[in-house]
Design brief:
By secondary structure, the protein is mainly α. 79% of the residues lie in helices and 0% in strands. The protein has a single domain, classed as Growth Hormone, Chain: A.
Amino acid sequence: MNGHIRRLRWYIGALLFLSTVINYIDRQTLSVLAPILKDQFRWTNSDYALIVIAFRVAYSVGQTVSGRWLDRIGTRTGLSVAVAFYSVSAMLSSLAAGLRSFAMFRFLLGLGESANWPGATKAVAEWFPRRESGWAVALFDSGSSIGAALAPFIVLSVYRLVGSWRPAFIVTGLLGFLWIPLFRSLYRSPEDHPRLSPDERADILANRASAAAADGEASPGPLSYGTLLSLPQTWGIIIGKALTDPVWFFITDWFAIFIVSRGFKLEDSLLAFWVPFVAADLGNFAGGGLSSLLITRGWHVGAARKLVIVLGALGMLFLIPAIYVSSLAALAACFAAATFSYAALSTMILNLPADIYPARSVASVSGMSGTGAGIGTIIATYTTGYVTDHYSFEPLLIGASLVPLAAMVALLVLVRNSEATKRGLVTPI
């Protein structure tokens, strides 16, 4: 490769965005097809919940395991292997013949997909200074909402074209194999990237050296799990993810079924399906952009992140009015307001490991928070299946609006300067 690429770090950010888009298209294939599969296989909501839980179990365990694995093996190799693994798993879902086989293939998919967020967070820590990390996290995390918005169009188009749900899993699974060679051709570490300009390299490495000095980095390996779990900041991030991510996954996994339960036809509801996820995409950039703007204007990093966290948690209360509206447009608007707010809040939580921890431990903390989110989502998914089979979606929407307020409190109380800050284990915030 010859010649430097100007602002190369943003091309790296674009690759992370594409990875997240593909990740979500693969996982949303089942969610989009859920009403069709439920009818064909005679599943109850509780049956469908078991398939979703199989994914979540693997995803939960996999986040902690893959986070530490990525900290040791590196971002380039780790994400390449992970995307190949989950792409094959997605395609294997086309062979499913019932509840057990769907659950098995979804378990494999969750295991592979679990590496995306720890890996992307680690890449941001390697390539972006703090003044830009909010934007960078917003960019890659916005891929989740874009992927969720694109999935209905891709999946239902394939289904209508061939009259079968099986090819949809093959088509979406192939996307990862288009991404891998592009990623491997462009991604290197900033220290030895042949297409990184000297000025940009110097800026990245100077910011990393400054962060390392603030962190007191002295050893080449990541901090031990025992050390990380002894820090209140770690628990704030874990609890924050555990109480907010289940709301997002409730929407992504159950929104199609919810729309049908309200008497709307899935084929006629594509716009409503699309709007909340586009709103989430805007929320990613609104949250990341606002916090980055405040930091450039002199705010402390912690204060800028926490303001967005408070606003995001309050905005998720918009799920409650969705219980009472009757039109599809109003329902979509309520969900859009909530997903916009969630995405802004989520971007801040995703950014906190890179803000606080040494680069060598960022993926480990991100992975543990993902495991916490997975455990919360498993509980929420089982509850959703039972409650909707026996009652309705109404109590779930109320709970999904209120639980993020508890996450907000945990983040405000636990993510703060502490004794660990004085000891140089974490960066002041």
